[in-house]
Amino acid sequence: MRRKAAGESVKYQMIAANVDVVIIVQSSTYDFQSQEMERYLVMVRDGGATPYVLLTKTDLVGQEVLAAQLAQIRSAGVTAPC
After folding, report:
1. C-alpha dihedral sign at 26, 30, 31, 35
2. Concatenated DSSP letters for the chain?
3. What is the pLDDT of residues 6-55, one digit of tens each?
């Protein structure tokens, strides 16, 4: 897998090799960002790996907050298992 290097030129940095499965870990509290998750999913899929999403700290948010976060993930087109 690779990501775009910092700067204005279009160079890439290798971040992993020979990876079949990637688990994207994101907290359900404080800094939940579905846009950030989307960027990671694009990188993972471009690298040919299978992505999974793992939401942590779900016990610290209410059921309605968790349901809203899952809906936000699904509405963004994220189809990885959660």
Report:
1. positive
2. -EEEPSSSS--EEE--SS-SEEEEEEESSS---HHHHHHHHHHHHHTTPEEEEEEE-GGGS-HHHHHHHHHHHHHTT--S--
3. 566 666 666 677 788 888 888 888 777 777 888 888 888 888 888 888 88
- Dist. CA 28–CA 44, nearest whole Å: 21
For the chain, how big is the Rg over CA atoms in Å? 14
Phi, psi angle pair for 36, to nearest 5°: -65, -40
β-bridge mates for residue 22, sequence order:
51
| C-beta of residue 23 within 8 angstroms of C-beta of residue 16 | no
Longest dimension (CA), the chain: 44
